[in-house]
Design a protein that fits this description.
By secondary structure, the chain is an alpha/beta fold. It contains eleven helices and 13 strands. The strands form three sheets. The chain has a seven-stranded mixed β-sheet, with helices on both faces. Strands 9-10-13-12 form a four-stranded antiparallel β-sheet, with helices on one face. Strands 1-11 form a two-stranded parallel sheet. α2 (42-62) runs parallel beside α7 (255-271), α3 runs parallel beside α4 (101-112) and α8 packs parallel to α11 (363-382). 51% of the residues are buried.
Length: 383
Amino acid sequence: MKNKTVYLDNAATTFPKPSAVTDAVYECIKNYCGNPSRGSNPLAMLCAQKVFECRETLSNMFACPTENVIFTYNTTYALNMAIKGIMQDGGHILISDLEHNAVLRPVASLQRDGCVEYDTFEAYAQTPEQIISDIDRKKRPDTRAVCCTHISNICSYTLPIKEIGKYCRDNNLIFICDGAQSAGHIPINMQDCNIDILCIPFHKGLYGPQGGGAMLLSEGVSPPTIIQGGNGVNSLEYFMGDTHPEKYEAGTLNTPAIIGLCEGLKFVNTQSISEIQKHDKELFSYTLSALSNIRGVKIYDHTPGSTLLFNVEGFSSDEVGEILGCDGICVRTGFHCSPLSHKALRTPSHGAVRVSFGSFNTISHIDFLCSAAERMCLRKRRI
């Protein structure tokens, strides 16, 4: 394994991609990369058909109307569209104590500008009943929405989105769900979970290229748009109109990425999400056991899934990442754009080391990681 790359940073972006994904992107760029919905020439029409195929596949995977699959630049962009659209007229929004900066920063900026107020409800290490109770306690007459992650991006802790969605539906609140770390790893049915808006990436658990995301809307949900521009429809009109998805898709889509995503979705469907979930948990269990047997390693959450967070005594997280990198092991260190999560898990001032698994990881990759961690601990004890 020496001098080979062991990639364990799949929560940031999955790597490698299935060969069908890279082949599809290359084929598009080389042979037919027209501009979908911009004219009726053959290449534009072919790209429009490919984009529709991807919309339809996402619609089937997440149980939302095909026309309500809105393509965006990434999950952060989708979350900004959702939050700023829903909260355009002000009010109060609730977020969890495990949110990524993609949620925290938009609501904090809205509050700083005097447009919106937000509160944080406790989710980490709480039962579903406790979570719902805290949401209910912090709900106000002007509360309009609840926005929360499905799975933390620093560990595998999973929020009870079905219970949260039911509470929101029963209390006439919009439920916005950040599916950045769950899409492709565990099943998500928007209808069953009463999710009004689901925001997802192309490039993580769905194995598509970087530079793409989607905002999925349930039936009847149509927040105001915060982006205006050309969409290939009614070009003489001064306004975007209300037709989905065109209402939200101003400017040229990232067609090669969308076409690559479609192949990524086929890969996930062929593997099956249940098998991917099983693979994640098997790797997590093996990693947890191996690292737990190394004196000097601290693990922060034992929830099984695709992500594990740890530190090595006597080293900062950045030092651990640098040492592992010298052995060709790719992890992520620091605060992972999620200060709320690190506060909830009580990591130290230097953050922590995150390993995250994908479909192409094996037990041998974990053995290599754990051997490197053990060498670090032995070296520190000898000093």
